[in-house]
Amino acid sequence: MPRSQEEIRKDINYDESKVPAFELPSPLERPDGGRVTTAYEWVNRRRGEVLDFYKKEVYGQLPPRPDKIRFETLSVRDDALDNTAIRKEIRIHLEMNGAGSHSFVMLLYIPKNAKLPPPVFLGLNFKGNHATTDETDVMMTGRNIAGELVEPEGHAVQVHRWQFRETIRRGYASATACYHDIYPDFCSEEGWHRCVYGLFYPEEPAESIHKHASSISAWAWGLSRMLDCLENEPSVDASKAVVHGHSRLGKTALWAGATDPRFRLVISNDSGCGGAALFKRCFGENLEAILALAPYWFVSGLQRYINNEAALPFDQHWLISLIAPRPVCIASATEDLWADPKGEFLSGVYASEVYRLFGAEGLGTDAMPPPDQPVTGEISYHLRTGKHDQTRGDWLHYWDLAGKLFGR
Ligand code: GCU
């Protein structure tokens, strides 16, 4: 009998001295007992094995591109954000021959008068496109499986997480869509057919889909379709794309970065358990807690490791390794112990050996930095003072990283 969330929460460990001793398998260890020693071998063999492992055991398969993708421009304003930006709303239509269609709306801001097409940040939002901006004529998006708006009163409630004005001022474009419109979160069994998976597995029972798919894979797949759309948009440089996400969407950003190498910089903010944090530390949220909250975020097979993290044949530093040698940013917050900042930092430390194969350093230190003093290697880590959130303080670091990467 599974325990209730209240019961599980009572036993959550926040005491560093109670973190169990654990051994971390190296992503460089091959199944035959040998060890990967070259970037060549990592890229051409081992990385594929690790990626397949993650698809099977953690987040599931990503569907292919649909038979048809169409981009329908719904609106354009050339005086957005106090006349500093061009704003577009684009409906991304995904169509499968004989299995219907699904669509969602992407909001895109592009700096006005940019000399060259700019790099672009993209990420999913929690509460609808209208929640990310203070422009009240932006379409309300984000619907549950009944087709109702999840946050009808949500105008501008998460503007601070998006920082569009400053992003535009610094010369970047920024795009977002609501994650519910790809896979409605908290939607139970029925959700599997009322989301993008309905296009690919229309006849398959939900329980069976859950064995090889998850909402995190659906959301990551949606980010890749947004990037397809941006590749079609001459006013942005989609070859310079930065994917970012907060919390469950930070987990998603990491998985999108792992599965789609077009993302040049990957940012996970407070992604915690099932994101950057190491499962085996069992500090803050653990497998039992996360799978009780949202089993469908992961494939159903992950449940066999509940209260048995020690038996996991991998840990989340493998996920970070899949992004190598591209830069990745792991961001935590001091008061966000549920997400285990130290566990998030350590996955960066342990993924660094894969970066070193490429002549890079990775994180470049194994000493956790004090709050608000980011470490900036190819793997960067910062611990912001404050709560579980995505704030201007986080963005200051992201802009800095994008500036270094794209020479701006
Ligand atoms: C819950 C969940 C976390 C998740 C977070 C969020 O707190 O336990 O794993 O990251 O929600 O997405 O906000």
The parts where pLDDT drops under 50 for at least 5 residues are none
What is the CA-CA span between the terminal residues? 55 Å
Shape: globular
Counting copies of identical and different chains, the oligomeric state is: single chain
**Strand segment count:** 10
> What is the CATH class?
Alpha Beta
Mean pLDDT, as a whole number? 97
- Helical fraction equals 25-40%
Radius of gyration: 20 Å
Largest sheet, in brief, is: 10 strands, mixed
Question: Structural class, judged by helices and strands?
Answer: alpha/beta
Fraction in beta strands = 15-25%
The ordered H/E elements are: HHEHEEEHHEHHHEHEHHEHEEH
Strand order, sheet with most strands: 1-2-3-5-4-6-7-8-10-9
Number of domains: 1
- The CATH superfamily name is Alpha/Beta hydrolase fold, catalytic domain
CATH topology: Rossmann fold
Listed once per kind, the bound small molecules are: alpha-D-glucopyranuronic acid
What CATH architecture label applies?
A: 3-Layer(aba) Sandwich
